[in-house]
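To assess whether the prediction recovers the assembly geometry, we first specified each molecular entity separately, as shown.
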Amino acid sequence: MELFRRLFIAALCAGTLSGVVITAAHQFGTVPVILEAEVYEKAAEAHGHPGVAHEHADHNAATMEKAAAHDPEAEAWEPADGFERTLYTGLADILTGIGFALLLVSAYAVKGDAMTWRRGLFWGLAGFATFTLAPTLGLPPEVPGTAAAPLLDRQVWWIATVALTGGGLGLLAFKREAIWAVLAVAMIVLPHVIGAPQPVESGSAAPEALAHRFVVAAMVVSLLFWISLGASTGYLYRRFVQNT
Amino acid sequence: MLDQTIAASDPNRTTAEASRAAALIPALATAFLGAFLIWGVGFSHIDVFHNAAHDTRHSNAFPCH
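The predicted structure of the complete assembly is given in tokenized form:
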């Protein structure tokens, strides 16, 4: 219980810190692009093409799902644009930071090595490769109003890709025999051989340049997030858990 | 094989192994909690969760909508 408490405190502090930093980075980097894309998305909806410009919505389950989600009668609560929306994005960023920080300190505890901020930084880079690089190869960051395959299929592929990439990187880093390296590479490549779920028809309400700007912003902010989270969990794990 | 021989002959090494074993349950608990938080923010299909975390989901490239 004592170890759980220490791990939790280290993750809480590191996750909150990185979450606050990334909230600021999101407000400057990704959120302005999302808001701009929503203007195109709403315009497309106003022209009777919910989400994306699709006349053949019945052929595309994802588009139908999207249309249902945007039915005004079925609309659930959402934060009002402006301060409230920023507040909830900040809260979600901090919770995401704490969530990933908990995963990192759990890995440190199982690995059992003496940690430093610098060693943590490399764990953070592995986190970036696992949770951002690998899944975005198949499912790039998307602005609102982009056609996509059904949500559940994408979520299953995302989770499988993360599990296989994380497991593969772990084998590469910590097992010495060549056979493990071969298995690791196979695990990392497998989800991309299978391929991410794709929409029946691709398309986006927002211009391609905007979508591209979003990919760059999301990837750079994610890299910052993982560097910050890795270094801070490494440092705080040393302070709170290893007491040195 | 070599590792096992070293572990048997090196008391420090066996202590480290024992502390790693003791860390397993608390580490699984924190990992589970972390995964639960990430699921709630990034993956839950509950509309209110989706709407509150919308910009975070897009920015982190979690599958969204």
